[in-house]
Amino acid sequence: MLQMQQAGVSFRGETPVLSAIDLTVHDGEVVVVTGAAGCGKSTLLALAAGIIPTLIRPRLLHGTVLLQGESVARIPPSQLYRRIGAVLQSVDDQVLDLSVEDLLAFPLENRGMAPTDIRGRVLERAGMFGVRSLFGRAVRSLSGGERRIVVLTSSMMWQPSLLVLDEMTNGLDPDARARVVAILRRLRADGQSMLIAEQNLGAMDGLADRAVFLGGNGRIVADLPWAAIANDDAVYERAGIESPFQPPRRAPVTRRVTAAAPRLAVQNLSTRLRRSDGRPVLPGLDLALYGGEVTALIGPNGAGKSTLLQTMLGLIPRASGTISVDGESADDWSVAQRARRIGYVTQNTRRMFFLLSALEEVVFSLAGGEAGAAVVARHRDAAMQLLAGVGLGEHAALSPFALSTREQLMLALACMEAAAPSLLILDEPLVAWDRKYRHALLATLERFCEHGRAVLLVTHDLQLAQAAAQRLLILRDGTLAFDGPLEAGWQSEAFRDLGWPALSQAERVHAAA
Amino acid sequence: MLRLERVNVFAKLAVAALVTVLAWFVHTPLVEAVLAAAMLLVLLDCRLPQTRGFLRLSLLVFSMATASWLVNFLLHGQPIGAALAQSLLLALRLIVTTTCFYIAVETTSAGALLAACSAARLPGSATLVLLLIVGMIPLLREEYHRIGDTQRIRGLDVDRGPILARVRHALARGVPLLVQSYRAAEAVSLALSLYGFDPRQKRTTWREVSWLFVQPQLLPPPE
Fold this sequence. Notes:
The complex is a heterodimer. By secondary structure, chain A is of the alpha/beta class.
């Protein structure tokens, strides 16, 4: 089906992103490419899908990429993307502000198919992928899982020979992840060839036939049958990722610096926002977060997590209740005033940066919102130390926009550490299974706790919660269905009620711990 | 679903053009005010999510346009009454024009626009330009608000404080927006290729399109 022979790519300078890639995907085979952040997974997929060099031109290109014996570089794009379906890592880039049926019909309309045939094909495929109920809605308004399934359906409209999927399950809650994987398993059963980039190999269990591990130098370090990957720890070490088949290191359970008073206290909090059935999104929530403690907040889509965070940050007005930080009422504080005490790292950290270098961004936070050469000179050493603490010491001079998504997340963390808030909220930090960044994230949270600050980790990544947190909150329908120690949380009825398929994994990890 | 969303975008643009022409033939501020009020009523009836922002901006534009033309006419020696009437007329004309085109664009989804372009057999390159404009505007508007929120959450009072600080903080909004715009343009271009969009290829549409109406949804909404 797909053959890559001695393929290599360079974008800037002589350092290759990919080198000497020999990879074959046979008919009906599912191959997962994995590796640390920046190892070249997405580049490999782009090369396999012909995006490189057809749509993105690299500085240097070596080797050949053949699709059914034909060079992908020689196939015109409109023909090529009938034969290859692609879902990009940033799936939002593929939705074009269209409605669900418009997006499904788009590839067919672009090739001039007759309207009745388009309608028939759209209805048939939408039924197959279970997205008919989403008709009439804008794709951008859907949940992350629904959005990916719709884009996947759209990329399958021409029944491509090869499906190329870049981190389809990253950042999804366990339920949405299970739905996506179930669809992919069905496609596999129908004989669909797939090339998938994924860090969370646990999610690919029962789907993939082989795993290809990329090393830091852009070369393949191992190409193993799926049955062999669970017990080969060394290969994860070489690829720089965590094994999902081994229990993670457990965070210390005791609180380090626990103040008697909470760093943040929320009492009877409600907002005017209502659900479709008329019930308030937050009907009156009580919550206290203590210094020296990492608290993980989990919950299904629509539980009210975003509303809770936005209300705490002041972006959504309260209908009732109080919020206090370190015993001071924050009810009348502006968003910016709250931000000086409540640090928040958003999912899209790209929106946060605006200065010329990573160093200046950290200095800006250290200096309380001042910038300029004199300020940088004054705070350089402290800023460099913070950057080194998150593994970005060598990137201090780089523009924040030249950093990868995961590096930007670490830069945002360094900025938060510089600002020294009472409470840090981490909203779905997508470090996935990258060993370097996962460790740097855990070390940063450890430092926050050592300084007696509180951390609220909002995540769908139960393994990350297990590794980082001591306390678990389960939010359902705007109320805390569980609030207590992590271990008790995994075994609670509230967690079972979520029906998340990752439960068994969490239980296994718990038993090992 | 808005009634206007079912109307072909080219029909809406034609009506907007007619209203604009009408506004230019009106020579009394009172009649122009009635026309502007009618347009604003239609806008309010549409209940678009961003109506409040548009009204705020319109008020600002109206005030600034009236003031600048008033000064201009006075400097050219017109009596105050005539200068004020003329300034109001011109500012109201601006409101009528912007409001009717705003309604036409904001009540048109990217999908309905594509369908209308395909049915009208517009060249692919023209469809591409219209799609980029209509498709990118909501993305950038959303991005603008989200960047503002992100900066406020970072501790910057982007919309408050002394004017100099606000100008400085405008960078905090402008730079990420610029980067995101560039990135979004690249991403849209890549996505169009992945979906097989080719400006040389004649497109079709799943929608039934007449000169007046465009089919809004593939399936009727559930009862």
